[in-house]
Amino acid sequence: MMILQICWSGVTKPGKTLRFPTFPDERYMTYEAIINGARGLVYFGGSVRACWNEFDAAYGWNWTFYDRVLRPLLDELRSDGPLYPALIAPHSTLPVKVDGAGVEYTVREAGDFIYILASKREGGTIEATFSGLPANVTGGDVLFESPRTVKQENGQFTDWFGPNEVHVYRFRRH
């Protein structure tokens, strides 16, 4: 279980700057938690009054943050979405490895698909190479970045990662 930020008292105190995570911030935190084993997520702080605008105050929760940031992110994790089978699958024992400074990842297998969820910590933009995929997979969709794909050859593929960037790959077994 991981608790992630919407708003918290540390940004509402006098002398502090009220700041919310952006979509890329919240997406990175969410996938980083999943990659590191979280099987449940809680988004904390929607009820902190100091973080509400007039619209939110009328409804008693930070619906502005939900509409702008959280809803698009939760759409990626929904139970009828393309990633969901991987979210409930156990970690894979495939010997996938990555050569890329600061890149963390997890591999999941579900049905005819192999999924790699990968994120990169802070630092510069890098090119990372993933290897160890089985020979019976081809191509690779980069979920939520359509029409972008990666080409897997000889069990490996390469992709670019900027700081705090996330990519979700899905390969079909043949």
In which range does the helix fraction lie?
10-25%
Distance between the termini: 35 Å
Q: Give the total of beta strands.
A: 9
Q: Can you say what the CATH homologous superfamily of the largest domain is?
A: Golgi alpha-mannosidase II
User: What average pLDDT do the residues reach?
Assistant: 96
Radius of gyration, in angstroms, nearest whole number: 18 Å
Query: Order of strands across the widest beta sheet?
Result: 4-5-9-7
CATH class of the largest domain: Mainly Beta
CATH level-two architecture of the largest domain:
Sandwich
Shape: elongated
Strand content: 25-35%
Helix-strand pattern: EHEHHHEEEEEEE
Reported by name, the CATH topology of the largest domain is Immunoglobulin-like
Number of separate domains:
2
Helix count from the secondary structure assignment: 4
Low-confidence stretches: none
Structure, described:
Helix content is 22%, strand content 31%. The protein has 174 residues and is of the alpha+beta class. It has 2 domains: 2-77, no CATH class; 89-173, Immunoglobulin-like, CATH 2.60.40. The strands form 3 sheets. The chain has a 4-stranded antiparallel β-sheet with strand order 4-5-9-7. A 3-stranded antiparallel β-sheet has the order 3-6-8, with no helix packed on it. It is elongated and about 55 Å long. The two termini are 35 Å apart. The mean pLDDT is 96.
